[in-house]
Structures are given as C-alpha cells and as structure tokens.
Amino acid sequence: MEQPRLCLVFPSASAEADILRRAFAALGFVCAEKAALAPMKLVYPEGAVQGFSQILQHMNARLRADEQQSDELLQFATQCVIGRGDDEARRGCINTAETILRDGRWFLGGDKPGVADFALLARIGQAAVTGDESAKVAALVSRLAGKFPVPSPGAALPKDQRSLISKLLGNAKLIRWVARAAARFAPATVTFRKNTFVFRWADVASVCDQDGAFRIAPINQSRIENVSGRFILGMDRSVELFQQRGHLYKALHAVDMSVVRATLEQHSEQLTTMAMAQFGAIDVVNSYARPVAGRVAVSLLGIAGPSESDLLRVARAVFHETFLNLGGDSAIREAGLAAGKELRAWIIAEIAARRGSGSGKRDVLGGLLLQVEAGDLTDDEAANIVSGLLVGAIDTTATCVANIMTELVSDPELCARVRADQHDSTRLWGWCQEILRRRPHNPLVVREAAAGASIAGRGVEQGSKVFAISLSAMQDARVFDNPSKLDPARPEKNYMHFGRGLHLCSGRDLNAIQIPFLVGRLLRCNPTRRGGLKFRGPFPDELVIGLEGAKT
Questions:
Q1: Could you give the CA distance from residue 221 to residue 232 in angstroms, rounded to a whole number?
Q2: Burial 462-495 (b: 16+ CB within 10 A, else e)
C-alpha cells in the first residue's frame, strides 16, 4: 500500500497549533505524531502557528497591525478569512495565491510567512477538496510550508493529557470486567459519604425513570444556563420543560432532512475518498467524524460561526463545561463561558440576518423563527434551544465513531462480521450500539436525590449525588444475556447510550442515522489499525487508521 505523501507535525500543548492542525485535518491531510507515516514531513513552529491563530481570533486588528504586508495582500488575507464560504470563493483564493507565487517567491509576501499565508491556509482548510483541485492545494501547501524552520526535537501532536485515573478509566477491557462484576455482585446501592453508586440495570433505569426523586436540575441547571441559557437538559419535570420540548420537536419536524442527509453523505464520501487516494490513511476524529458532524449540525441547526474551526472549538468548550466539568475547574469554566458568549452572538446575528433577507430556511432555527413570528417564542428562547442542541451535536458523534472504530480495527474478526452487515442499516446500528457497550461515550448519569428517594427499597439521603453507572448496567447479564457477546439483534429499548426517561438525548434519531453511516463509510474502505486512540483532556482527539480500499 502506498504511504501518505505528506505528514504535518505541530508543536505540542498549543491551542494555536490545535487550530491549525484542525484546518489541515478538515482538508484531509494526515496529522500524526509518527513522521514515518509519510516521506515528506512539514513542521510548524510556535511562532508561525500563533500568527495563524491570531488571524482567526483577532482578524481585523491583526491585519491592520501587519505592516510588512502590502495593501493588496491584506485585502487578500481579509477575503480568505471573512469572505464567502462557498467552494467558488475558496477556489478563487487558491487561484489568486498561485498567481502571486509564480515569480518564484516562497511566501505570498516574499521570503517570510505573513498573515496572508496563514489566512490562505485557514481558508483552504475549511472544506474538503476533491479531484484536480486536491493536487493543486497539496502543492500550494507544500510550497508555503517549504521553508518553515524545524522545531526542537519532540514537537508533535498534542499528547495524552489525561490524569492517571482517567487513563485507567480509558482501559476499555479492564473497565468492562469491573463493570460486569459490579452489575453481578454489587448491592443495589453503594454509598460513600453523600455519594451513592448504582450498577445494576434495573436500578440505573429506576434512577432515570424516577425523575421526581432523582433530580437533574441541581446537577446541570446552573452550568447550562450560564453557558447556553435555559434548556431542557437542565430542567426538572415542569410545564416549562414540556413547553420547550414541544417547540423543539415542532422545529425539528419542519427541517428538510433530505438536505441534512445529503450533507452527511457528501462530506463523508469526499473526506474518505480524498484521504484514501492521497494518504491511504485518515484521522477518524479530526479529519472525519468531527468535521462531518459539524457540517451536519450546520445544515440541521442553521448556525455556522465565522469558520469551521471556530464552530468546533466553541462546541467542544461549551460541552466540556456543561457536562464534564463536575470538579468545577476554573479554566474549563472560563473557556466554556467565553465560548457560550461567542455562540450566542452568532445565533443572534443569524436571526437578524435572516430577518433582514427574509430567508425562510428549513432548518431548526428557521422552524423556531416561525414560532417567534407566531408569538409563541422570543428570540432569546429560540437561541437557548439552538445553543442547547449544538452543545452535544458534534463531539458526541465524534466520540462514538472514534470509540467504535477503535474496537473494530483492534479486532479484525469483529470488523469482518460488522462489515458483512454494512449495507443493512438496522443491523449496522445494532452493531454500533453493541460496540458502544464495550466502549461507551458516556458511562454514567448523575442526579441528586430528593426527599423520600429510594432505590430497590433502600432509602437515599436527600441531597446525595447519585451516580448511575450505565456502563455497568449494559453489562448486566439479567438484561443482556451473555454480556461479553456482541449481538446486533438485542432490543434497542435496553440501551442507555443516549439517555432514558424524561431526559432522552434530543439528537438520538439523528445519531441513529449519522453514527452508523459514518462507521459504514469507513468499513467500505477496509480500515486497518495504525495506532491507538489519543485524547485531549476527556475528548478523543486522534485515531489514525489505514484505508486499504474497497473490499468485497
């Protein structure tokens, strides 16, 4: 198999490097820690990467401050960063850059990289490139990067930043064994101080189903409201919850799902085809699942942000603070709050733009605005719903796909069995849910006990935090006969991957389409193991797999 021609290596532990890496990952380039993946290695030092980040985050001030660039180049850089987002405009930027570089200069401004170069790299990284254009872009990127200095040894992709406990929890085989033992032998409740742990399927289901006794508002409400506004995932049972849910489902019902499905099909096809042709490999997380999920979210919800990199960054920061910051880390909170403000500004700006143009798009925001016009909602309430939906729309999908593919490429026999069902959507979704029992994207739900709460006849002290371990519940042999065996025909009602009871995931129906489709598209490329799953904090952030081509 031909090795990928180009490997991009970035400084570790750098938020700026992460933005640049994601731009290239969206383009389809392999970004990996092992330079041996490709004969050609491009490395980006901290200074160059920081210049690129400043373009994205402070574009106007940065452009005006760069006195080394001509007015024409500043205008070109502005066009790259804040110009139209369609393919024609992007091709225009690429053609302009080609023309400028014909005189033999290494960079657009001369011998040194400037803001125009980084703006161009940002631009071409915002969408998939296919056909003849891919070779042109590869040559252009190589040209721009050709004289970047080599950084100190060891500069590479972000390393696994999890704590030792998090790494142990990431050992899927160990955790499955412990979860299975807990479901079989643990009592109905295990209490330590004011923390109660529940492991058996029936008891976990009881916690989820008794939403009056085990409340979600004390756990999620303040964080969700501070970041995204009032949303159903932070509300206990109430009139407000059912009213908002009604508005949400009405808006979802009005969406043109053919457009959403076309987005899913088009971009998953483009990214895998390009990666297979150019590199024979792909990063499942940042070159595939996250960008595709982001683009599907844009087509479904109607909010895009200034760039794809911004959208993915904001969605992850909000998700991290809203659902994963149980320890109250101040840095995570500050990033989440700032991201929430950005997202709110995008939504309000989009509402104003649609009113000004009279746009009647058939997406979630469009459906909500119809309800605003009817006097059933306010703009702020519509923004709350869109923001709340976006939070879990991207990284949930990416994590599920990464976890599933980790298991498949690690187990060739299982991969062959699943590949045999790749064209049967029902069985493929069953396989995905079974594999997620092995390696779930969310292993537990947390609630707070109200007065009089009980589990299996045992009282739970009011105010106690209750940790319902859904990972363990889905290894319970009382419900999942022979739990170590993967059976795609198990009853769907027994799974808890996307919630249970009052607080089901609003995107569960889309997940049932999107996750197996993304997995199935990779299966068509005959995926093989290249390395392990790597993390950035609690999020899967890299899984490079080989793509050996179609296999009958």
A1: 9
A2: eebbbbbbbbbbbbbeebbeebeebebebeeebb
Are 481 and 390 contacting, i.e. CB atoms less than 8 angstroms apart?
no
- Contact partners, residue 264, CB within 8 Å, separation at least 6: 292, 296, 513, 514, 517, 518
Q: How far, in Å, are 13, 75, 320, 398 from residue 536 at the CA level?
A: 9, 36, 11, 13
DSSP per-residue string spanning 484-518: TS--TTS-GGG--TT--GGG--TTHHHHHHHHHHH
The continuous run of DSSP H or E covering 142 comes out as: helix 132-145
Q: Provide the whole-model pTM.
A: 0.74
Q: How far apart are CA 343 and CA 322, in angstroms?
A: 14
Residue type, 444: L
CA dist., res. 520 & res. 74, Å (int): 44
- Tell me how many degrees the CA angle 124-272-17 measures, rounded to the nearest 5: 45
CA dist 181 to 435, 490, 497, Å? 19, 21, 20
pLDDT digits (tens, 9 = 90+) for 480-532: 999 999 999 999 999 999 999 999 888 888 899 999 999 999 999 999 998 88
Chain-centre distance of CA 538, in angstroms? Answer: 12
Report the DSSP pairing between strands 40-43 and 30-31. unpaired
Q: Which two tokens stand for residue 521?
A: 């598209």
Measuring CA to CA, how many Å separate 347 from each of 127, 350, 395? Answer: 22, 5, 20
**Strand segments (E) across 44-194:** 190-192
What single-letter DSSP state applies at residue 103? G
| Strand extents, DSSP E, 307-382 | none
Work out the widest C-alpha separation in the chain, in whole angstroms: 81
Six token digits for residue 105: 């200069």
Two tokens at 432?
A: 């995905």
148 in Cβ contact with 17 (< 8 Å): no
* Low-confidence winner among 143-152, 188-197, 414-423, 505-514 (lowest mean pLDDT): 143-152
Cβ atoms of 25 and 543 closer than 8 Å: no
Average confidence (pLDDT) over 358-381? 92
How many C-beta atoms surround the C-beta of residue 56 within 10 A?
21
Of the listed ranges 65-74, 93-102, 111-120, the one predicted with least confidence: 65-74
